[in-house]
Structures are given as structure tokens and as C-alpha cells.
UniProtKB/TrEMBL annotation:
It comes from Arthrobacter crusticola. One of its GO terms (cellular component) is plasma membrane. This is Flagellar biosynthetic protein FliP. It is found in: Cell membrane; Bacterial flagellum basal body. PANTHER family: FLAGELLAR BIOSYNTHETIC PROTEIN FLIP. GO terms for biological process: bacterial-type flagellum organization; protein secretion. The keyword Protein transport applies. Residues 41-94 have a biased composition (Pro residues). Its main location: membrane. Keywords: Bacterial flagellum, Bacterial flagellum biogenesis, Bacterial flagellum protein export, Cell membrane, Cell projection, Cilium, Flagellum, Membrane, Protein transport, Signal, Transmembrane, Transmembrane helix, Transport. The chain crosses the membrane at residues 115-148, 255-274, 295-314.
């Protein structure tokens, strides 16, 4: 059955009041144990007390020693007389050296010390390239090998390192007897202490000078002698090294250019033949070097070019 609106609203209010009264009774009847219990505060723990170190006793005012004499007080009316300072000590004479003052660079038994040998070795390594170029067969061999490479139209094959290495070992092979004489006649006696440095230098210059005189033209020696304004030497052995070395290099370059000219001739003929053939066929735009290069290499291999050149170079110093 439907109630009127007023009675329905009144009934709802009554139900709401009854519900609020029941909740209030439940709250009032709740036991005290359900409340939140907090632990009682603990009293703070006192920090341990560290006893302070005892203060040093006050010594009090210093008391004079009755047995010690009282310090003399300066008299302002009678000051002490000034005292002259002691004169400086006279200088002493320098101690005389034990020896004669010379520096000894040799070791025991007259042999050179290791420091001197090391210094000479470093110096030799510094000037070795110049000595190799000026006083050996390296110059002529290197020039001939480079001209052979250019005649083959191969500007970078073989490379410079290979040519220099081949020229170096050929020079050692050619000058082996001379180097052996220098080692046995000058280097070893100097290391053993039998020769001084000047004597070793004189003995070492003899074999190399004789060897260079064999392959130096008289015209080149005369040229350098006139350029230096010196008189003509009486014998070839009287030619100084300062004149002999440049004359030897000029002679070596002249001989190298002669050998290089002879090597160039067959390859020049191949270039002329190839160029004429290309011109006759009307192939003027084709570079002759591309066509002649295989024929040059073939000819060089067939005649054993490297063997012929090395043999000719070695025999030129025989």
C-alpha cells in the first residue's frame, strides 16, 4: 500500500533517529581496553662522566737561588769598552794535483777505455754514409743501377731501397780485401793498445788511399790539385786525401755515365722501332712507351741483364 508523502517522510526521519541512537549506545558501551595503549616514557640514560685531568700546580713566582751569584746589571754610567773583532784567517794555498794534470782516456795496459770506443763508434755511424759515398764503389754502382731502371722506362721499379741495398752489398763485396787490411792493420792493434789513435789513423788511411789511386784518373787528380793551388805531388802516394777523395768521386761518376750510356743504346733502338711502326700504321695517339715496355723487359730477361750489369761492375774494380 502506498503511503502519503508526508507520512513517508516522517517515517524515514524516525528510522534515521533510531539508527543514530543505536550507534551512540554502542559507542558508550565500548570497553576501555579497546583504546590505543602507548608505552610509558623511559627516563633518559645519563652519559658517563669522564673526570677532567688535574690542572698543573702553579709554581708561583720564581725564587732566586740563594747559592747562585746575582747577574750583573749593566751600568749605564760606565759602559764596557768595545773589543776589536778577530782578524780573518789568511787563505791557504791550493793543493797541488797528484799527477801532471792531463786527462787519461786509455784503460789498463794502454787499451782504449770503453767510453772512447763508444764515442768513436757513434762518430763512425754518423759519418758512415758520407764515407760510404765518397770513399767506396757505392757511387758508381748506385748510379748505374738507377740509369738501368730509367732505360727500362720503369721509374719506380725496383724501388730506391732495393737499389741502395744492392749497391751497398756489392760495395762490401768489392771492398772486402781493403776492409780486411784496415781491420787487421789498424783497428785491432788500436783496440789492443799497440797503436795510438794517430798511428791507427795513419795505418787505416794507407790501404784505402792505395785502392782509390787505382781507380782515379790522373787528369782528375791534376784538376783538384790546380783548384787547390797546390804543387804537383812527386808520387801518387803524396796526394793528400782532401784532394784524392773528390778526384776519385769525379772519376767514378764519369765511369758510371759511360756504362749507363752503353745500357741505354739497345733500349733506345727498341723505342725507335716501336715509334716508327706506330707512325706507319697511323696510330699516333697511342703512346710508344706502352708498346715498347714489354719488349724492353723481354730483351732484358733474355740477355740476363742483371747478371751482365753486376758482372761488369765487379770486373771494373778487378
Amino acid at each position: 500500500m502506498c503511503l502519503p508523502p508526508r507520512r513517508a517522510a516522517l517515517r524515514f526521519r524516525l528510522a534515521l533517529l533510531a539508527f543514530a541512537a543505536g550507534v551512540l549506545l554502542l559507542l558508550l558501551q565500548a570497553p576501555a581496553a579497546s583504546a590505543v595503549q602507548f608505552p610509558p616514557p623511559q627516563p633518559p640514560v645519563p652519559a658517563p662522566v669522564v673526570p677532567a685531568p688535574p690542572a698543573p700546580a702553579d709554581p708561583g713566582p720564581l725564587q732566586p737561588n740563594p747559592g747562585a751569584p746575582a747577574p750583573a746589571s749593566p751600568d749605564p754610567l760606565n759602559p764596557p769598552a768595545p773589543v776589536d773583532p778577530a782578524p780573518p784567517a789568511p787563505p791557504t794555498d791550493p793543493a797541488a794535483p797528484d799527477g801532471d794534470g792531463s786527462v787519461v782516456i786509455n784503460g789498463p795496459n794502454g787499451t782504449p777505455s770503453s767510453a772512447v770506443v763508444t764515442l768513436l763508434g757513434i762518430t763512425l755511424l754518423t759519418v758512415a754514409p758520407s764515407l760510404l759515398l765518397m770513399m767506396s764503389s757505392f757511387t758508381k754502382i748506385f748510379v748505374v743501377l738507377v740509369m738501368t731502371r730509367n732505360a727500362l722506362s720503369l721509374p719506380s721499379i725496383p724501388p730506391n731501397q732495393v737499389i741502395a741495398g744492392l749497391a751497398l752489398f756489392l760495395s762490401f763485396f768489392i771492398m772486402g780485401p781493403v776492409l780486411g787490411d784496415i781491420n787487421s792493420g789498424a783497428v785491432q792493434p788500436y783496440l789492443d793498445g799497440d797503436f795510438t789513435f794517430q798511428e791507427a789513423y795513419t795505418e787505416a788511411a794507407g790501404p784505402i788511399q792505395q785502392w782509390m789511386l787505382q781507380f782515379t784518373r790522373e787528369e782528375d787528380i791534376a784538376l783538384m790539385t790546380r783548384a787547390a793551388g797546390m804543387d804537383n805531388p812527386a808520387t801518387p802516394e803524396d796526394v793528400p786525401l782532401t784532394t784524392l777523395i773528390p778526384a776519385f768521386m769525379i772519376s767514378e761518376l764519369r765511369a758510371a755515365f759511360i756504362i749507363g750510356f752503353v745500357i741505354f743504346i739497345p733500349f733506345l733502338v727498341i723505342d725507335l722501332v716501336v715509334s716508327s711502326a706506330l707512325m706507319s700504321m697511323g696510330m699516333m695517339m697511342l703512346p710508344p712507351v706502352i708498346i715498347s715496355l714489354p719488349f724492353k723487359i723481354l730483351l732484358f730477361i733474355l740477355v740476363d741483364g742483371w747478371g751482365l750489369i753486376v758482372t761488369a761492375l765487379i770486373r771494373s774494380y778487378a
